[in-house]
Amino acid sequence: MQNPQDRQRYYIFLNTFFDELQVAEIDMRLNNSFGDVVPNSLKLLSAQVGRGMAAMLHQNKRDYWLLSMNFSGDSLLAFPVNANGIGAPVVSAINKKLWAGGRLKSSPNSELLVVSGKQSVEIFGFNRQTGNVSALHSLIIPDSAKQQAFSFSFSPNSSKLYVGTMSKVSSNASYALLQYDLAAGNSPQIQQSVTTIYHPSFIGFGQIQIWDMQLAMDGKIYAVREDSTNTPPPYYLSQISYPDQKGIACGFKLNTIPSTGIVTSLPALNQTLFRNAGILQAQANRDTICYGDSVQLSAYGAGAERFRWDIADGLTSPNDTLANPVVWPTKTTTYRVIASSPFRADTAFIKVVVRANAEMKISGPMQVYRFAEEQEYRVSGQTTGNSLRWQVSGGEIISGQGTNRIRVNWGETAAATVTVLETNDETCDYAATLKVAVSGSPPPLFYNIITPNVDHKNDAFVIGNLKNYAENELVIYNRWGVEVFRSRNYKNDWQADNLSSGTYFYRFQSGLQSWKGWLEVAK
Fold first, then answer.
1. Structural class in CATH, domain 281-354
2. Cα separations in angstroms, 35 against 8, 25, 140, 155
3. Rounded to whole angstroms, how far apart are CA atoms 375 and 8?
4. For 158-172, how does the pLDDT look when each residue is reduced to its tens digit (9 = 90+)?
5. What are the distances in angstroms from CA 9 to CA 42, 59, 142?
6. In 3D, which of 78, 80, 87 has the Cα closest to residue 60?
7. In the CATH scheme, what is the code of domain 445-521?
């Protein structure tokens, strides 16, 4: 049960073998967000209690009541669960003995409570404001000499009560699934409305019974029954398909889901979770998604068995006939589903919000030389206020990360890319990519005037783009063709040492390529 004060914390109530009602807190933030018991939170609420528990929604639709009975079966306890914690119980005395070994079950609307009496089915009204319990109906099962009421479930609209019985004798044992129409009128009329939904023809031996029943989100009721004629397994989930319908129209189906082990109880869930189980509902596993993502829709409730979704953005045939289709909307879309059973058809809607896709575009040189430096790329069409992050393959970002423009030094990888990612507050990532072809080398640039006067300006003969021609040879001649300098793998370091001012000539060679020209030395 959720803590009304902290939506990350829950109460778990334990009814122990020692007839004690205990409570502990679960914090979903513990154990790496998988949830765990809050240390030292386990405490005793009450000793000498019966087997069953039930939960009711408070009149304020925020807080809860937890109901139990004392072990002697002569009173019911309603513990308030609110933002202040778990309070002292409201005690309602009962004029007859209840069976402490039986189950308690609340109605989905939190207005009714059913308990096993010693020889009867006891239905109580519940005051959601005060927590008081008052007797309404005392019903007798048809074969009370051999059977006793054990398990219960209300229909989604709380108008039908289903009772599962257990055998009271070891020989000629029998059990049944019964339905009482609570809308029939007064107690005698409700008593007369009883219908046997299921009664096995086999007369067994031992204590055979319908162990438990539970209403589910799909609007159906599932029952655990034991039948010694089945081997293995002897335990099954049977199904009441249309529990709001009267009598055998409720659509009981025997042994719909076999169990792989011994199952005698279903989760003692808070029945207020199912107060809308009789209504068709639609939901998405995420109501807001990023552009390009998929989302699963779900339709359930009202006992629906056939589904038809309107064809809409991201939803196409044949998925439109599924209860849980996966859709790929490209824009915010409201989906409509019509679902039906043999008795009714319902319509439900679910809206999926799609975060807008940023229509970004990257501009910049798409063909560059190997080792090209300080190439600028910029993005347009991004959403103002969203964060940007650039990624470059085949090169290195030297400036501008996080802004709308960057500068890149390229390497020698032939196929390279520039990518920019935009992230918004909902952690949606949108990307734009530009492919860049890296090939060839820029021609060398010859700066043909040097002034080697030790002022650190133009002191040496510089060849631009020299790093693209690492294996090279440079030869320099004077005006009469006499070689005055030769260097392999030149490093831009010739300063015309011991030479006079004048005009000189160079020959620069790398691989099969060769360049010739002149340069002026001015000392």
1. mainly beta
2. 9, 10, 44, 32
3. 51
4. 999 999 998 887 666
5. 14, 22, 45
6. 80
7. 2.60.40
